[in-house]
């Protein structure tokens, strides 16, 4: 009976949209199913559900529609990023769920009528003429050129999708919500608060800490030997750094199966580019014009800082032998022929703990002192709030700007941040994150007030004021009763749907062909 979170909203979209699976436009969540089994997959199948294949072309079409939908909503994220968020898995899960439901509908004898099928086809605007009416000739053309299906294939698949929707309707009829459940939902959702808080982070005060005197440093170092050693171990990558160069490259790409003649042509081209550099051509300009390395071409061949062991040995030997500002002769690698310019060099560093113990002790000393300053400033701010000076007065944000925490920028000073309204259902505070102690104190307050203590949330000391406090009452319940009943019914429909799908997966056999999907999306990218 919790509020609808993004995952549940996503499931709700699935419930109400499955009837036309090829045109589903999915939101940001996922059921997270990933069942596998022993059924064989073929190169043309995205998945096999109880022996029935979901063709890769269906997945490709659903994926394309997903990406097009995001673009139409003003979210043109790259496909690579969409895959990082697991969107490809979400799309495949929806296709698998649709197939499971269609098979369940067949088992239960659920079958849409011809009139229902005709009505749904006639409603699809893809098949409408310019005048807005269903056009049979256009219907045949769109199926042939876009859907890549015959009318018989399309109508059979659409009938199965409608059956899946009817199966869902049967499942959803069990979503009955009692008055007590509605009341419980109101008691939870109607108990709301809004805060203004300010964070006091040690990093805000490090610059205000004076460097320790030799005596202070020696005393601190003696008392914190273990912390210093732990810091060194955790940051060993800072103190033990191999030789590095900052470089640019121009690549003349050569295919792995290139002939000797093609390899010779690539080397000749690289030698010609090297002559242009010798004649005074700017390396970055030439890289933008001539390099075959798509990842660096637009940046003038910029590779950033490179360590020797990250490169092909032959290429690394040639590049690391140069001085800053020099360019290699053409160097062959499995990728092709390279020209590398060394922009800057840094020698290897190998600092032992004894070499940096004083440096680390100084850092930890200042951090320790900064923690004390942050707590002292938080205590001072709390006293001022209790004396009647609000956090917004003490720590105003520049007119027309949001606090740094809302801009996802580094906070350099305490700022008053106002939250959205939130409930006691969870342990988190908007814009602050998990803070169970602060949430508990907030909802123990019966009216707006300054909370009586400084709360520790992560590294921060937090001072907070309750600025709005709403508690559930009978009048409010009567006003929202039907709205809450609808929300509760939707939440229960989602739970029933997820439970039913899980049972279908558990009793069935679903195999995901991830290799084929990776191949399709890799080619598309």
UniProtKB/TrEMBL annotation:
Membrane topology listed for this record: Single-pass type II membrane protein
Q: Which InterPro entries match?
A: PPIase_dom_sf (IPR046357), PPIase_PpiC (IPR000297), PPIase_PpiC_CS (IPR023058), PpiD_chaperone (IPR052029), Trigger_fact/SurA_dom_sf (IPR027304)
Which residues are in the PpiC domain? 242-344
Which GO MF terms does the UniProt record name? peptidyl-prolyl cis-trans isomerase activity
Q: Is Cell inner membrane among this UniProt entry's keywords? A: yes
Q: Where does this protein reside within or beyond the cell?
A: Cell inner membrane
Which Pfam families does the entry mention? Rotamase (PF00639), SurA_N_3 (PF13624)
The main place the protein resides is membrane
Q: Which domain of life is it from?
A: Bacteria
Query: Which UniProt keywords are listed?
Result: Cell inner membrane, Cell membrane, Chaperone, Isomerase, Membrane, Rotamase, Transmembrane, Transmembrane helix
Under the heading PANTHER family, the entry gives: PEPTIDYL-PROLYL CIS-TRANS ISOMERASE D, PERIPLASMIC CHAPERONE PPID
| Protein family | Belongs to the PpiD chaperone family.
Entry protein name = Periplasmic chaperone PpiD
